[in-house]
């Protein structure tokens, strides 16, 4: 993809960031992680272990693992399964929803191949977030049993928390039914501790990105972030530990490059278009305020509280744009911009993602007040707008330097 | 010091040659299919006009849609930055720029020639030169006559479609409903002005705003934009060359 973009943009005169940046061995190892994971999950399923597919940070991993099941994320980042989805879904909904749905219902007739893991789940655990996903899940249930967790949409009220606890209780029951295993508080506590470990590792990695120049590129970072909910927690932690020790020992060279925060929609595996353009044009992404970024690991789960309540309290506070009001997201963006010393924010949205597209206005006003420049990029999974985005990013970099 | 700025635009290619910060000569030519050779020809033209050989040129800077493909340029710069620089050279007091080109429109907020914010419409032809081209065709008038026709209208037709292809159909349906050419032309002009004014308002461009790009030559659009924004706009004598001028001035203060 990167080579393709470079060819299309004919960027012979632009210094390559990646030539200068360190090549991390632990990221090379990630290349074989996909196929190893596929073997692992098929072995597990043969021995009777259940595997569930998820789409969203609001689904607590801890409950799935405590029930003795495995999980893989099913968010689609590839363009080629979108046309399959458009046989069922309207054209004007977001590419993530279409790509995911297309990857799951794909029967191979059109010659497009879905990645193997899309057909390796016994149940889908969905969640009521945005309208497109909600309605897509209704159709998905015709193909794979789909369990939906409802979310209260005004998270700051005490009633919302109470309701979310009952929803998570029901989800725990559903997992027990699927696996035949009891989800005990003891098991939940173990999984909470394990997930918090992962969160702490990601915090350590992000801490290193506060250095100037940053020792790791945003495109490299995305490679591991996109695998966060695909790998087993044990493997992920192993990869993170290796990467942290490598990144710690890197002495970054070169001049200051504009430090960029990406804020907005998630970038599932297969979708790296905008980060590649930003870093090819001389910027360096130092933090991602997104579901493939800080939103996934920023807050810990309280290990001392009653586990189901602690989970509900932590997960209900994820600053997703489907929540209203969602001002904690604005506060978080300003805090990250300060802590990571960002020069500018690229507000990234997917076409037809109304939540993040509308929330742009509030974020823009807040950043303006704080004196932080922002570039808005609305895009899809196709390559048709690579040149246009390239021009905006060029101008943005010129503006920042 | 001699430098040349080349603006490889989608519709026209522009070149400006400057010596010690002063413009010596310029050229504008259609880009046609091969924008690399258009840039080469434009470059040669300004050299010939100025009576200067290639070896005497210190720097060549490229901007515009094809900027990254001009191998003989020292550096490629985005047209947002170069328009700001070019306009600053002509009107130092300007703090906002509206640029309507062949395939996109931009509004730029500037401070002392430096870009502080910008917005672009490049996903859709509405609010660009292409929109004028298509709707003029549906009206069966040459694009250059659109402005004078519009001035003769007292009751402009309303064109509401955001999509250029549908606006073309809308023009045809207005024709069948008996609207005059003048009223439809005025409707087209108002539609493009409305569209661009939304972007200008988003960046809060309120005064000292310059209007550049090929479409700025259309005085009816200038008046419609001025009416829409409630301000008068600065339009350079040659509104198409500010990008090339800014590129040529890239290295000077």
UniProtKB/TrEMBL annotation, chain B:
Ranges for domain ATPase BadF/BadG/BcrA/BcrD type come to 4-250
Keyword flag Hydrolase: no
Q: Which UniProt keywords apply?
A: Iron, Iron-sulfur, Metal-binding
The protein's matches in Pfam families, at most eight in alphabetical order, are given as: BcrAD_BadFG (PF01869)
User: What SUPFAM superfamilies does the entry give?
Assistant: Actin-like ATPase domain
Which cofactors, if any, are listed as required?
A: [4Fe-4S] cluster
Please list the GO terms describing molecular function.
Answer: iron-sulfur cluster binding; metal ion binding
Q: Does the keyword Plastid apply?
A: no
> What InterPro entries does the record tag this protein with?
ATPase_BadF, ATPase_NBD, CoA_E_activase_dom, Dehydratase_Activator_Redct
The protein's name: 2-hydroxyglutaryl-CoA dehydratase
């Amino acid at each position: 993809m990167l080579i393709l973009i470079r060819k299309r943009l004919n960027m012979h005169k632009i210094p390559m960031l990646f030539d200068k940046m360190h090549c991390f061995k632990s990221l090379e190892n990630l290349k074989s992680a996909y196929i190893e994971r596929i073997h692992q999950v098929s072995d597990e399923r043969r021995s009777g272990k259940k595997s569930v597919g998820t789409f969203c940070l609001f689904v607590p991993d801890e409950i799935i693992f405590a029930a003795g099941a495995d999980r893989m994320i099913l968010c689609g980042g590839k363009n080629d399964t979108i046309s399959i989805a458009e046989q069922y879904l309207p054209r004007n909904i977001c590419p993530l929803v279409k790509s995911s749905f297309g990857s799951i219902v794909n029967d191979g007739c059109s010659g497009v191949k879905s990645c193997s893991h899309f057909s390796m789940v016994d149940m889908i655990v969905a969640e009521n977030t945005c309208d497109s996903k909600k309605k897509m899940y209704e159709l998905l249930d015709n193909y794979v049993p789909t369990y939906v967790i409802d979310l209260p949409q005004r998270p700051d009220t005490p009633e919302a928390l109470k309701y979310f606890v009952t929803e998570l209780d029901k989800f725990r029951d559903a997992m027990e039914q699927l696996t035949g295993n009891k989800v005990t508080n003891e098991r939940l506590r173990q999984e909470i501790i394990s997930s918090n470990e992962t969160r702490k590792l990601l915090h350590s990695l992000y801490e290193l990105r506060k250095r100037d120049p940053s020792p790791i590129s945003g495109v490299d970072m995305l490679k591991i972030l996109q695998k966060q909910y695909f790998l087993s927690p044990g493997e992920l932690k192993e990869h993170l530990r290796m990467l942290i020790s490598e990144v710690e020992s890197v002495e970054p060279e070169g001049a200051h490059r504009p430090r960029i925060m990406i804020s907005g929609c998630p970038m599932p595996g297969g979708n790296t278009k905008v980060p590649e353009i930003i870093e090819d044009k001389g910027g360096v992404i130092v933090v991602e305020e997104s579901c493939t970024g800080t939103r996934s690991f920023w807050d810990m789960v309280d290990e001392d509280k009653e586990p189901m309540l602690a989970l509900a309290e932590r997960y209900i506070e994820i600053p997703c744009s489907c929540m209203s009001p969602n001002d904690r997201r604005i506060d978080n963006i300003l805090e990250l911009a300060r802590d990571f010393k960002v020069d500018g924010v690229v507000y990234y949205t997917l076409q037809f993602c109304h939540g993040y597209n509308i929330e742009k206005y509030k974020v823009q006003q807040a950043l303006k007040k704080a004196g932080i420049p922002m570039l808005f990029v609305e895009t899809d999974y196709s390559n048709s707008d690579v040149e246009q985005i390239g021009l905006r990013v060029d101008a943005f970099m010129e503006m920042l330097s | 010091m001699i430098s040349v700025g080349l603006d490889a635009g989608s519709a026209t290619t522009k070149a400006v040659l400057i010596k010690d910060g002063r413009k010596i000569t310029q050229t504008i030519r259609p880009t046609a299919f091969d924008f690399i050779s258009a840039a080469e020809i434009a470059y040669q033209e300004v050299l010939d006009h100025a009576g200067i050989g290639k070896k005497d040129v210190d720097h060549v800077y490229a901007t515009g849609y094809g900027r990254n493909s001009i191998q003989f340029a020292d550096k490629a710069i985005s047209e947002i930055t170069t328009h700001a620089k070019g306009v600053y050279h002509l009107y130092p007091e300007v703090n906002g720029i509206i640029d309507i080109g062949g395939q996109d429109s931009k509004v730029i907020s500037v401070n002392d020639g430096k870009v502080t914010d910008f917005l672009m419409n490049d996903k859709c032809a509405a609010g660009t030169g292409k929109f004028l081209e298509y709707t003029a065709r549906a009206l069966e008038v040459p694009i250059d006559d659109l402005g004078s026709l519009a001035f003769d209208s007292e009751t402009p037709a309303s064109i509401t479609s955001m999509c250029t292809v549908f606006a073309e159909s809308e023009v045809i349906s207005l024709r069948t409903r008996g609207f005059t050419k003048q009223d439809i032309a005025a409707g087209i002009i108002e539609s493009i002005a409305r569209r661009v004014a939304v972007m200008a308002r988003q960046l809060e461009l309120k005064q000292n705003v310059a209007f550049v790009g090929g479409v700025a030559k259309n005085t009816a659009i200038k008046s419609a934009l001025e009416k829409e924004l409630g301000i008068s706009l600065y339009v350079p004598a040659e509104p198409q060359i500010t990008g090339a001028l800014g590129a040529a001035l890239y290295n000077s203060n």
